[in-house]
Design a protein that fits this description.
Layout: E1 2-5, E2 28-32, H1 38-41, H2 44-52, E3 58-61, H3 68-82, E4 87-91, H4 94-108, E5 126-127, E6 130-134, H5 135-144, H6 147-151, E7 155-158, H7 163-166, H8 174-184, E8 189-194, H9 201-209, E9 214-216, E10 219-221, E11 227-230, E12 238-243, H10 246-255, E13 261-265, H11 269-281, H12 286-291, E14 294-297, H13 307-319, E15 326-329, E16 344-349, H14 354-361, E17 372-377, H15 381-402, H16 422-430, E18 441-445, E19 451-455, H17 457-480, H18 484-490, H19 504-508, H20 512-534, E20 538-539, H21 543-559, H22 577-590, E21 595-599, E22 607-612
Parallel strand pairs: 2-11, 3-8, 3-11, 4-6, 4-7, 7-8, 12-17, 13-15, 13-16, 14-15, 16-17
Antiparallel strand pairs: 1-2, 5-6, 9-10, 18-19, 20-22, 21-22
Helix pairs in contact: 15-16, 15-17, 17-18, 20-21
Length: 626
């Protein structure tokens, strides 16, 4: 069976113009593969087809843990070896590079001395007929190696190829790398592998089609007909829960089983350090008080000044696990790195990018039959507003550089140097040691030794995608309201076996915000019930009334966190009976808690009593969004 996987992103139906206004998205006919490991499904007959038509790239789209790397290190390596052929294996991230080299060293009996600076496995590239390099090292090789080195490889494995998309906003050379890979290895079998092709597929097709670009009456048409294989996805091992604030995760960890481990992906270094410090400040038990329960990793951890952090990083890199109960990390681990620890029963993901989300989800290797709690941070309107600001930052930067980026992407044009103010932008981005916005503009070394600024086309593509994703969420809010905060990411987990989103009421039962709100409302209603049973006189100005008002205000704020009426106007130490009366009416609108203050006309003092107007059916109210 052959099917077309649409290039359109997240339900947005407008055309995806990649770099030029006349770009038309290409639909790739992926061959549907059986529910098996890649190494079992792709045979030597398929490999021979690739060799016979090397101009056509190979796409292998398969979920993490489906054996993509095993296929390369075993099937493809052995086939190439018996035919006297060599493989270039390109990987991303140093940690992933280490894992692949460690496996190949064992398979090929490659000797190395771990304690020797020259012979550490990180510095070894050749493992029999397989050469392993990172994208970063390959970037340098483009200017250092002769063409004969590039031509020596029959197969080039472009692993975790979503890297060109996911790293593009901070790595200015992602577009240049992809362009050069196609150019330098034009006679090799180019094998692109990823679990998340969605956002990078168009751009790979764009660069691959440059080999066969034709010009017909002034219009460019791009052809890309790869060998494409799509393996089924299955996310049934995950039991999804939804949250909005990392404080909720702290509470879940503290009340959960001490035997279960946690893997937490955060979106920033500051958030990761803060969460780690918070968890270690409140020890989970006596033993962890001395040892600390949590550890935080980011891209700087392997060179950290803290000896324990460096040791734990090496332990994770070597064994796929640490002795800490809580591992907190940024997306440094989201590319191909494997966590192999059966004690990890909880995964937390905060990112709002689909590619990063699915890559982070795939870091944990799960045994068949195992269930894992997956905590997904909801995307709120506030978060979407932050994404808009991020889009504007990069969009404005590109426009400052070249005026109109889309017009600057003509293949045979350098018009971007004639629009905007490229000199000022380059000075702003590249005269400081580090700038997180540097991704859109690269500096390329010309043959004459001069540096030429260029737009990173992958960064512009991701910027365009970000704009489409923002609009997709806004469209979802229009149709689904507040439920869009959950559905937006839930639909990323709709796999081949279960494409439909579950009933929204099922999702609500796993929404920590709703569960917390329901519990808070339950506490408020129980408080009012007890006060009504007391039949006490509540006289404004007395201590009893002040205690009642303060407790009521505290519980009301928790039950209705989105109601800011208590924060408006003149601040009072306690609410009077009229203000409380108005809030009691609000409670009645959302629950069966119909209460009212009655003036006690038989009392000599200005006395009020709390009365229930109707008996409750049960204290299990629906969600309240006041």
């Amino acid at each position: 069976m052959r099917t077309k996987i649409p290039v359109n992103v997240e339900g947005v139906t407008d055309k995806n113009y990649l770099f030029t206004p006349d770009y038309v998205p290409i639909e790739i006919p992926f061959q549907e593969m059986p529910d098996s490991y890649v190494s079992d499904a792709i045979t030597e007959n398929e490999i021979e087809k690739w060799k016979a038509d090397a101009e056509r790239p190979v796409f292998i789209s398969a979920q993490t843990g489906s054996g993509k790397n095993y296929f390369v290190t075993h099937n493809l390596r052995e086939y190439a070896k018996k035919n006297g052929e060599h493989i270039l294996y390109i990987s991303n991230r140093v940690a992933l590079d280490y894992q692949q080299k460690k496996e190949l060293a064992a398979l090929t009996n490659t000797k190395f001395r771990p304690n020797s600076p020259e012979d550490r496995i990180e510095n070894i590239e050749d493992f029999s007929n397989v050469t392993v390099v990172t994208y970063q090292k390959l970037l340098h090789y483009f200017s250092q190696k002769p063409q004969g080195w590039f031509s020596s490889f029959c197969y080039v494995v472009i692993d975790e190829c979503h890297f060109f998309y996911s790293d593009s906003l901070f790595n200015p050379y992602t577009g240049y790398l992809l362009e050069k890979i196609v150019e330098k290895f034009r006679n090799s079998v180019r094998i692109y592998m990823s679990a998340t092709f969605d956002d990078v597929l168009d751009s790979i097709c764009y660069y691959e089609s440059s080999l066969t670009t034709t010009i017909d009456q002034g219009a460019r048409s791009y052809s890309c007909s790869p060998f494409a294989y799509h393996f089924p996805r299955d996310f049934s091992a995950y039991q999804c829960k939804y949250f909005s604030d990392l404080k909720q995760i702290t509470a879940e960890i503290q009340k959960g089983s001490k035997k279960e481990k946690w893997l937490v992906f955060v979106t920033s270094k500051d958030a990761g350090r803060k969460l780690c410090n918070e968890l270690n400040r409140v020890p989970q038990d006596f033993q962890e008080q001395a040892e600390k329960a949590a550890v935080y990793f980011d891209s700087q951890s392997r060179n950290s000044d803290d000896i324990e952090t460096r040791i734990l990083w090496e332990q994770l890199k070597k064994d796929g696990k640490t002795n800490k109960r809580i591992l907190i990390t940024t997306s440094v681990l989201d590319n191909g790195f494997s966590i192999k620890d059966s004690a990890v029963k909880n995964v937390v993901i905060c990112t709002n990018d689909k590619t990063e989300f699915l890559q982070e989800l795939g870091r944990l290797r799960i045994d068949r039959g195992t269930k894992v709690n997956l905590y997904i941070q909801k995307i709120t309107r506030k978060v979407n507003a932050d994404r808009k600001r991020m889009y504007e930052t990069f969009s404005n930067l590109l426009e400052d550089f070249c005026g109109e980026p889309q017009k600057a992407f003509s293949r045979d044009s350098d018009t971007f140097l004639k629009r905007g103010n490229p000199g000022q932008v380059v000075k702003e981005l590249w005269t400081t040691r580090e700038d997180s916005r540097r991704g859109p503009i690269s500096l390329i070394l010309n043959k004459d030794g001069t540096l030429c600024p260029q737009i990173n086309k992958m960064a512009w593509w991701r910027t365009c995608q970000l704009n489409r994703q923002i609009k997709a969420f806004e469209n979802l809010v229009e149709t689904k309201g507040e439920d869009a905060e959950i559905i937006y990411k839930e639909q990323w987990l709709r796999c081949d076996a279960s494409p439909d989103i579950p009933d929204i009421s099922i999702l609500h039962k796993n929404d920590l915000d709703r569960l917390e709100s329901d519990a808070n409302m339950q506490a408020l209603l129980e408080f009012l019930d007890k006060e009504e049973e007391k039949n006490s006189e509540l006289i404004e100005g007395t201590n009893d009334f002040e205690v009642f008002s303060q407790r009521f205000t505290e519980l009301y704020k928790k039950a209705f966190p989105k109601n800011t009426s208590l924060n408006r106007g003149k601040k009072r130490k306690v609410l009077g009976h009229e203000a409380i009366q108005n809030h009691l009416k609000k409670i009645a609108e959302f629950t069966d808690g119909d209460y009212e203050f009655f003036f006690d006309s038989g009392s000599e003092k200005n006395s009020w009593k709390l009365k229930r107007l109707r008996q409750p059916l049960c204290h299990t109210p629906e969600h309240y969004t006041v």
